[in-house]
Amino acid sequence: MQVLVYGAGQLAQMMYLDGAALGIDVQAVDVSNNTVVHPVSKQPLDCSLEQAIERADVLTVEFEHVPEALLETAEQSGKLHPNKDAILVGADRVREKALLERLNIPNCAHRIVTDLTQLDECVEALGERLIIKASRDGYDGYGQWRLSQKADLPALKKQLEGLDLVRVPLVVEQMLKFDREVSLIGARNVSGDIKVYPLAENLHYQGQLHVSVAPATNSDDALTAKALEIFSKLVEGMDYVGVLAVELFQCGDTLLVNELAPRVHNSGHWTQAGADTSQFENHLRAVLDLPLGDTTNIGGDAAVSAMVNIIGCDDHDLALLGLPGVHFNWYGKTVRNKRKMGHINVTASGYKALGSKLEQLSGYLSADHFPELVDEAARLQ
Ligand code: ATP
Ligand code: MG
Ligand code: MG
């Protein structure tokens, strides 16, 4: 079986690694030059994109910002999962908000802005604490601006002056005071079977995911049921096939959808070590219409996992491999500020043990690059 992934980053690499065990050959498309490459070495393979599309059983994506013309060709082959519209929902916040409204799924109060003069109405309607997001091409908090008081509005408008808002509108959201961020990752296969992982609790720092813990602490059955209801509405509503990640804000017992990722997701990396079947394998199973694998944590009801991102550095001490339950993943990229370089998965028999393992792990990592790890370790203990 052959799967062609648009995008040749770490997510395609991890699909490749899990696919190999099932006899699934994963190839990747570098969308910057339309070449077909090996997902690990990134070396060009000896075939054109057209040939690779022809040979593949399924086409899929590892990120949503694939040029629309490429998606169109992929869709026309009849082999693309998830479908083009679902991918575009993840790539465009205007479409995303429209979908959430259509399906009646709670999300942040917002306005769509195509002209800077509309920002005054936004402040009137939503209040003066706002988060302003470019509707396309943003990730890891890039393409976002914040307003904390009305007096700063003229300065903000100046900053936004050069943007072509007719082509790429802004989505202006009320700045929420949520209790925490969680995400639900699940899969739906071609036959329509659905499986979801336990909710993950996500710790962000400067707009970027740093640590995930799964299952989320204090997640009762009612919260899990709410998340599942949102997930089911979304996948049915989009006729979605593959892994879908839903980023959520929790306010009391309410869940609001922040955004959708039509793909495997950073907050699901813990599943490689902590779940019976990883999100990468389940994505491949879903798009190839194979039975979905078990999504529960390995090691019984109390078992828990964490994922720690290695961001903008490579000065870790590999002696950390000696810690039990610690698994290291490296993407082979050149170091850049704020770039995701790799991640570490940690499994434990309970939250207290997980906290203690994270504390030990922090001894092998430079505190500068892992600003919240020690606090997170202490919180869990
Ligand atoms: P990602 O890398 O997850 O794709 P992104 O750049 O697409 O990130 P968002 O997920 O929309 O951006 O926002 C990044 C982070 O900013 C969120 O995880 C959250 O911490 C914060 N944030 C976003 N929207 C709001 C909001 N309305 N109120 C409060 N905080 C918010
Ligand atoms: Mg995003
Ligand atoms: Mg996000």
TrEMBL record:
Class of enzymatic activity (EC top level): ligase
Catalytic activity: 5-amino-1-(5-phospho-beta-D-ribosyl)imidazole + hydrogencarbonate + ATP = 5-carboxyamino-1-(5-phospho-D-ribosyl)imidazole + ADP + phosphate + 2 H(+)
Gene Ontology molecular function: 5-(carboxyamino)imidazole ribonucleotide synthase activity; ATP binding; metal ion binding; phosphoribosylaminoimidazole carboxylase activity
UniProt pathway: Purine metabolism; IMP biosynthesis via de novo pathway; 5-amino-1-(5-phospho-D-ribosyl)imidazole-4-carboxylate from 5-amino-1-(5-phospho-D-ribosyl)imidazole (N5-CAIR route): step 1/2
EC number per UniProt: 6.3.4.18
Taxonomic superkingdom: Bacteria
Known partners and oligomeric status: Homodimer.
Protein name: N5-carboxyaminoimidazole ribonucleotide synthase
Source species of the chain: Marisediminitalea aggregata
Taxonomic lineage: Bacteria, Pseudomonadati, Pseudomonadota, Gammaproteobacteria, Alteromonadales
